[in-house]
Every structure is written in structure tokens, then in C-alpha cells.
From TrEMBL:
Residues 1-28 form the signal peptide. This is Cucumisin. GO terms for biological process: proteolysis; response to symbiotic bacterium. It comes from the Eukaryota. It comes from Linum trigynum. GO terms for cellular component: extracellular region. InterPro entries: Peptidase_S8/S53_dom (IPR000209), Peptidase_S8/S53_dom_sf (IPR036852), Peptidase_S8_Ser-AS (IPR023828), Peptidase_S8_subtilisin-rel (IPR015500), Peptidases_S8_3 (IPR034197), S8pro/Inhibitor_I9 (IPR010259), S8pro/Inhibitor_I9_sf (IPR037045), SBT (IPR045051). Residues 640-736 form the Subtilisin-like protease fibronectin type-III domain. Keywords: Hydrolase, Protease, Secreted, Serine protease, Signal. Pfam families: fn3_6, Inhibitor_I9, Peptidase_S8. SUPFAM superfamilies: Subtilisin-like.
Amino acid sequence: MASQLSPFSLLLSVCLAIISHLVINCNGDSDTSTAQVHIVYMGDLPEGTATMTAEVHTNMLQQALRRDASDSIVYSYRKSFNGFAAMLTPEEVKKLAGMEGVVSIFPNGKKQLHTTKSWAYVGLPEKVVKRSAESDIIIGVLDTGIWPESESFSDEGFGPPPQKWKGSCSSGSNFHCNNKIVGARIYRSAGKLTSNKDVMSPRDTQGHGSHTASTAAGNFVAKASMEGLGKGTARGGVPSARIAVYKICWSEGCYDADVLAAFDDAISDGVDIISISIGGTKAYDYFTDATAIGSYHAMKHGILTSVSAGNEGPELGTVTNVAPWLLSVAAITVDRKFVTKVKLGNGRVFKGTSINTFDHGGKMYPVVYGGNAPNSTGGFNASMSKDCSSNTLSKKRVKGRIVLCDSVNSGEGPAAAGAAGSIMLAQEQQLVASNFPLPASTVSGSDEISRYVMEKRNPTATIFRTVEKKSEASRIVPGFSSRGPNAITPNILKPDIAAPGVDILAAYSRGKTATGIEGDKRVVSYNILSGTSMACPHATGAAALVKSFHPNWSPAALKSALMTTASPVSRDQNPDAEFAYGSGLINLKKAANPGLIYDAREHDYVEFLCGQGYNATEIKLVTSKAVDCSDVGKKIHAWNLNYPSFTLSGKPGGTVKRVFRRTVTNVGKGHSKYKAKVMSSKELKIKVNPKVLRFKDVGETISFRVTVKAKLKKSGIVSGVLVWSNGSHKVRSPVVAHTLQ
Ligand SMILES: *[C@@H]1O[C@H](CO)[C@@H](O)[C@H](O)[C@H]1NC(C)=O
Ligand SMILES: *[C@@H]1O[C@H](CO)[C@@H](O)[C@H](O)[C@H]1NC(C)=O
Ligand SMILES: *[C@@H]1O[C@H](CO)[C@@H](O)[C@H](O)[C@H]1NC(C)=O
Ligand SMILES: *[C@@H]1O[C@H](CO)[C@@H](O)[C@H](O)[C@H]1NC(C)=O
């Protein structure tokens, strides 16, 4: 089709397509028709500029490009950092890249929500304490918006927002803010909506944003459940805190230009913590990644950004959000599982996994194997229909029957064919309970079902409603959660921490059905979902809780408190060890009283950036701080950033030795003595000097050195632990050595 079009008509159609998004001048200027949204990042706001206007960017662009640029600018970032997003042709990008003041130019990439398909919830300790310090905390949630009518976001009992709040509320689609949802803005650089599932308002029509916001800061809601499943009190980490909504994600994904615009606003609006459960499919250089750039400026303003590690696991090196100023969160299971029993006509019962709110009431249905029911009119054969993917099943053969599938699928295929239910065979025990649009269960570890269905003349089965059970498989990092090592800075451990991210119950959008799949009629106020997207807001809530006790702590201090107090996770059950769970599972009982913290301020990150290989010119732009990297560079290595974990890497099979320098601040009792304890092994030797830290005052800092010698395996990870203990308090840091890929 395309080959029949003349180059002219191709250009024209591109041009028209662009016009429908953003008005640009296409008249006779074939050049600009190749224009696409790019982000021009120019670092910190110029010093001494109290208020910058958008004209600065228009003028700059006009002078550089010698054309009318007033319609090209999509966003002007000027509240919290400097830059803009604009429609630029490849030639224009080249021209601008060489300009003074420009740190980086990158295309308006698209990121995705970090949810897997489905989901249980184990909350934080359920003690209702209303604390006024908590109600002064504002959490900025960059996501798909929010469902304002949810009980989780009711403002009953809330006073007006804290004085510091400068944000605003964009209404539309009957959307209104209240004293719980104190602000809401929307960002859409991709122009007109392309799906009728989206609305141009902060209203959440996808469910993800309501879920993450309520996990971080939702009210206590007693007896919340998804159609009776997961029943319990739904609550956020800080139920009295306020929520500010920044809608950056749409049906097709989340654009970088929008992410940056949301950071620019959130920082100046006065949020305390930022939660962002999105990411790309790989790690990006810090200066060309919207999340890394936005969160750097947030950090400068004392705001911690908590982010999902990614759902790209289980392969090593898949963690996507890796900047050291981010809190990168992995997902882990809790002690609850969802069991869905299947009973065959011969009386045999199998325990499967899923979220099945439907009930066959014990009625037996005929069973058909997907491989025997291809949608041949649609051109599908048996080898395609055995997995029951969308469109592959024949309505005639499947309608009213339970369909047996050779693998776990979304349920869209069986639902479209009118199946009464679906039994999905899984290779291994499913850690994640998926939610399907029809009665369904995923069953593993047996070929008995297949044999019964193939060999029996009139096979029958029934699927029971899901029941909750206590799980033995708690504290396991599921396969989807992205793993370290950190692809950009191998000597900083990522992910940082693990938090509940499997089968989490939280608020949902009533603007969508439970699965969003055709045929599903269930509209629910609470839904059970899984993903690092669900883990991130748990860490956000935990960080907000610590901040409510220590309002002046830096983002690094909050991070350190969460990481050094995290509960150890079993290495035997998680072969990827720290690459899967970082410092361990967040522990809210201890996080607010860590004893010691590993603090870091902007100048520490500036030195880190030198160590990372950025030059003085680039760093000055980002941070507006003059720095001589060549001077600093001799002493500074990325691994000497005052981080609450220790990581070194080297060649496979070799030996690597490194001296780490760290400084801890006493945030506990004035007079205290901490002794170093290490857990090392034959492969990993750890020495600490000095071994004892004696503090006289609160706020006092003491430096020490950690010498690590590691014999590296052919691949993978060897690890140990450094613990500073005063007798009752343990300040724990993982020590990790790994081979460079
Ligand atoms: C089914 O169709 C696919 C794609 O057309 C083909 O590769 C495959 O060999 C077919 N399988 C059978 C069993 O006919
Ligand atoms: C069979 O395939 C056709 C063509 O892809 C599709 O339109 C139809 O919906 C399919 N039937 C079912 C039941 O999925
Ligand atoms: C700094 O790095 C940038 C980007 O790599 C390069 O263009 C510039 O010339 C470098 N400046 C110095 C002083 O080395
Ligand atoms: C250890 O430090 C913590 C935090 O400052 C303090 O609460 C605790 O009492 C200390 N324990 C001892 C035995 O000194």
C-alpha cells in the first residue's frame, strides 16, 4: 500500500497527521513535516532568575532555527528546571545539540505502566492512628489519574490542604478535587486522544492510578474487597496524607515530555514525595531519561522519588529505573495466596491459582481442548488454538463449555468464543493470581487433566470460586520483577528494596471493567493487581511515614532509613539474591528509627556524576554548580557515593578488591556506640575500619572505610552483609560483588 504512494503524498500524510496533533506550519515547507516532539534539556534554572517565561525558550528556538517557532513548543519547563519539548526536524535537533546550554536532546519516548495483568494485598500494620504530621504530607502520584468518588479518597475528617500547597485542580468529566485529593493536573503531548477509553480529565479510566494512589495514601476502608475476595481493611501507608494527581499515562502509554512537565509542576506545587510506577524496557543514561532528570531536580528540592524497578525479569540486568537518587522498588510476595479449585467428572480435584469471583455452583460443564476447537473460519489451526490466544477459538465448539488451554492466557480468546470457563495449564506453580473475564484457574504440575480430557469420551469439569489461604511462598520475588545488576552504574546496587507487589487489593476505577477485557461485565471499586507498579507505592507510603516523623530529612536519608532497616529476605528461596530484592523487604516498624543514616546531598551526587564520567561542562548545566571533575575525578569513584549498600564488579572468575568510604550520621540517641559486624564468606572478605563508632551527639557524623576482597564466580553474584549495631539497633547494608556482563 505504502509503496504505491508518491513520496509527496507520504510527506503530506505525515504532515496532516502532525497537524491533527499539534499545529505546525506545513505550507510548502516539506522540511518541518519530518518534525517530531523532542525534549531539549538544559539543566538547572539559570541562577538569579526568579521567574522564567516561556518566551525565553521560544526566542532561543527562533534564533537558533531562524523560523517562527511559536507553535512548535509543546512544553516549556521553567518552574523547577530548564528545558522545553518542541516539534523539531532531525536537522534542527543536530543544530540545537551543539548549542551552549543544552545538556541533552532526546526524542519523546514512551514508557509503560509497570503492572502485570493481575493481583492480593497484605497491608502495613493495621493500627488506626490519626497523626496531624501525616496530614501535612502531600504525595505526588504520576500515573493514569484517579477515581475521585472512591471511598479511599473521601475527604471526610480532612481539614484544608497545608499552607505550603501551591498546586491546582483541573476539572472536567465531573472531576473535582477535595481535601484529600488536593490537586490534579493532566499532561498530553501526543495531541488529540486516540482511544475512546481515555478522557481529557484527571479522572482515571484505567484503574492503575487509583490503585497506586490508594496504596500509598488511601484512607482506611473497612471490609474492602474485590467481589468478596481479599476482604480486609484497604489502606495506604499514610492514610491521613494528601494526594496530588499528575495524569501522564494514557491508553497508549506515558510520554517523556509529559513526565518532565509533571515533575516541573509537582516540585513547584510543593509535594513531599513523588511516586511513579512507570518505566521503559531498559535502563537509560541519566541525562536522557525523563524520570532520572525529573527526579534529580526533585531531589535538589528535598523531594524523594520512589519508582518501580520494572517488570522485565527474571533475566539479570533488567532493572529499568537506576539513578542513585531514586528509590527503586522490586516486588515481593506476601503470605497470602488465592486458590481456585477445579474438579473433573471423575471426581479428581486440582488446586489452581487465579482470582475467580465467578461461581459455577458445582455444576459440571462439558470440557473441550483448545487444540480441538480452532477458529478455522478465522484461518487458525490446532497448533494455534491450543493456547487459546485471542481469536483462535471456534465459537461453535467452545460455547457453553469449559475450554482447556495449554498455557496461561488473558482469557480474551475463551471469553470471545463464549466459553463457560477455562482451565489453563501452567508450566510451573503461578506466584501471581491472574484475573480473567470468565471462570478460570491456572493449574500446574500435572498432565492428569490433559489425559482425562483427551481420553475420556464426554469429559466434564467445574471451577470453584477462589478461596484465600495462607501461603508458604511468602517473601519470594516473582519472575516478572526486574533484576540487577545496574546497567548504567554497575557499582551501585539496584533495585534498592522490595515491597509487596503480588496480588495487591486497592482502589480501582469504575470507568472500566475488572479486567478491561471484552465480555467482562464486572465493575469493581477495589481490584487485585500485581506488578512492581504495586510495590512502588508501598515504598512511597513508607517513605512518607518516615518523613512525617522527620520532616527535615533529605531524600537520601529517607532512603537510607528504609534500606538499612529492611527485613532480610531468604537467599535460598531467591537465587538472584540482592539483584532481586536489594536491601530486603521494607519494615515499617523500624524505618522511622534507624539509629544511623547514610546521608547524601546534591554535592555528593555531583561528585558521583564526575565518577560516572560526565564532564564539568555537562554537570554545571545540570546542577548549576561549578565543579572540576579532573581534580575531583582522581579521588571520586561512583562507588564512593555515600550509599547504604556496597557494590563492586569485575571480570568473571577474577579477584577484585575495593576500598569504600562512607559516612554515617547519628540520628538516634546522643551518646551511642556502634560496633561493626560483618557476614562474609570464602569468596567475599569484608574488613571495616574503624570497627567501633562512638557518637557524643545527635547529628554527629563519623566516617569509616570498608575493604572488600571478592573472588568472582563465572557469573552472578556473591554477597555478604555489614551491620552497625548498638546492641539493640541494627543498621544493615548488603555487600555485593558481581561479574560484569
Ligand atoms: C498452523 O499454521 C501455522 C501458520 O500458518 C503453520 O506454521 C503451522 O504449520 C500450522 N500447523 C498445523 C498443524 O497445520
Ligand atoms: C475468528 O477469527 C475471526 C478473524 O480473525 C474473528 O473475526 C472472529 O472474532 C474469531 N472468532 C472468535 C470466536 O474469536
Ligand atoms: C563534555 O561532554 C560533552 C558531551 O559528551 C562534549 O560535547 C563536550 O565537548 C565535553 N566538554 C569538555 C570540556 O570536555
Ligand atoms: C540503640 O539506638 C537506638 C536508636 O537511637 C535507641 O533507641 C536504642 O535505645 C539504642 N540501644 C542501646 C542498647 O543503646
